[in-house]
Amino acid sequence: MSDVIIVGMTGPTGAGKSTVGKLLRQRGFSIIDADKTARKVTEKGSPVLAALCDAFGDDILSEDGSLIRPALAAKAFVDKESLNKLNSITHPAILSLIEAEIASLTEAGKTKIILDAPQLFEAGAEKFCTFILSVLSDMETRIERIMCRDSISRESAVTRIEAQKSDEFFLSHSDFVVYNNSDEDALIPQIDELMEKLGLKNPNEKPEPPQPQNIIVPQITTKKSGRKPLLIVAIILVAALVITGIALMIFGSNYNEAINKSVAVIKNPSVKTIEEIYPPQVWDYLIKLYSDIDPSIDTAEDVINTYLLDGTNEISGKMYDDFGTDWAIECEVISDEALEEEAISKISADLEKSTGRTMEISKAYNVYLFYTISGADTSDGFLNFTAIKIDGEWYVAKQYAEIGWKLSILEF
How far are the Cα atoms of 27, 195, 381 from residue 206, in angstroms, in the given order? Predict the structure, then answer.
């Protein structure tokens, strides 16, 4: 841990911490999002959610028993007493998960970590941090951002701000401060100066490519035994990631084959479109794997119909729920680097080891890009993937430490 830098990033609501986090991710930091961690501890049926109902009432739950976050916020952000009540319930569980995420990143060799935690001090999470960074912004800018972000009134936005700590508190408890009163371009000099003060980067150097983001992999329960082999998780990535599969529309590039498969999966989930995401050698292996669990499985079509199609249709439906039918994609390629022969040979060897099949890779590229999906909603972020060409077809390789390289349509 001595060589690991953990920067606790905090600040009041509406200050623009997510934009600062994006710029730091571009410069090689891994991000732990405490808000996402908070969502995990308040999942349906969790002890924390039960305690929140006791404290704030059962009307914070939807009909299916999941948390209605706007309803909880309306009750918890009315005054400091209510906010303290919320924090006392959620923070101990959040701290435990944050500690586990830090351990996981450091074990994976990550040495630059941002802990994005609006409630850093309230939760006591500053104990994990090497330095504290506060992101601040003027009051009027924050009010406008909160109103736009959460679709609430000016009065409600002001109430939320007044329930939190003052700028003076953050100034007196921070090692570094970034002011986010304008756009992203105005932030870059401050971020470069921060990197220099941390001794991590000359601000005049070209930023490092962004690191892959984390994803949430849906769980699968098999019909016979409840086993969830890692390769089942690998293939269900297709369902988990089709939403961003369209973001690979680098028109005119060498990856159109893989892109077209991704588009087909999201537009028309079917046996045909799902079967096309893997080469025949991998399907041979998957059929054997599933048939060991379920004797009724004999073909790729059996695997898809029994285990994959429902999940893919569900994710496809969510795509349209989030973005509507008239969505658009914009992508900016950051880098497109051909892999050396040694790296390609390593991928080939790992594929053969994990599937028992020989698949000769003719070309391979590491690709980094920034994407925006816009429609009824908007989502953006970075994608990092390794495109590999096998038998004239492009696929995307993802490495799992336990089982080597697997093929999926894309990865975050």
Answer: 9, 12, 19
Element (H, E) at 244: helix 230-245
The fold for domain 5-197 equals Rossmann fold (3.40.50)
Long-range CB pairs of 229-232 (<8 Å, 24+ gap) are: 229/289, 229/293, 230/400, 230/402, 230/403, 231/285, 231/286, 231/289, 231/403, 231/406, 232/289, 232/290, 232/307
Distances (CA, A) of 339 to 10, 156, 205, 357, 386: 38, 52, 23, 22, 9
Are 396 and 411 contacting, i.e. CB atoms less than 8 angstroms apart? yes
The helix/strand/coil state of 54 is helix
The structure tokens listed for 403 are 């089982």
Which residues neighbour 270 within 8 Å (Cβ) at sequence distance 6 or greater? 309
Nearest CA to 141 out of 179, 169, 100, 178 is that of: 179
Bridge partners of 34, per DSSP, are none
Token pair for residue 148?
Answer: 């736009």
Annotate 308-344 with DSSP letters as a single string. IHHHHHHHHHHHHHHH-SS-EEEEEEEEEEEPPHHHH
pTM of the model: 0.46
Question: How many angstroms separate the Cα of 281 from the Cα of each of 56, 278, 308, 407?
Answer: 55, 8, 18, 11
pLDDT reported for residue 165 = 84
Question: DSSP character for 203?
Answer: T
Over the chain, what is the mean pLDDT?
75
Amino acid type, 236: I
User: Which residue is listed with tokens 């911490």?
Assistant: 17
Picking from 97-106, 111-120, 237-246, 276-285, which range would have the lowest pLDDT averaged per residue?
Answer: 237-246
Reported in sequence order, the residue ranges of 74-203 that DSSP labels E, i.e. its strands, are: 112-116, 131-136, 176-179
Kindly tell me if the per-residue pLDDT of 78 is higher than 80. no
At residue 411, the pLDDT reads: 38
H/E element, 365: strand 361-374
> Average pLDDT of 381-399?
72
Phi, psi of 89 (to 5 degrees): -85, -45
Closest CA to 407 of 279, 288, 307: 279
Instruction: Report the pLDDT averaged over residues 162-172.
Output: 85
Q: Which residues contact 213 (CB under 8 A, 6 or more apart)?
A: 25, 31, 381, 382, 412
133 is written with which tokens? 């960074």
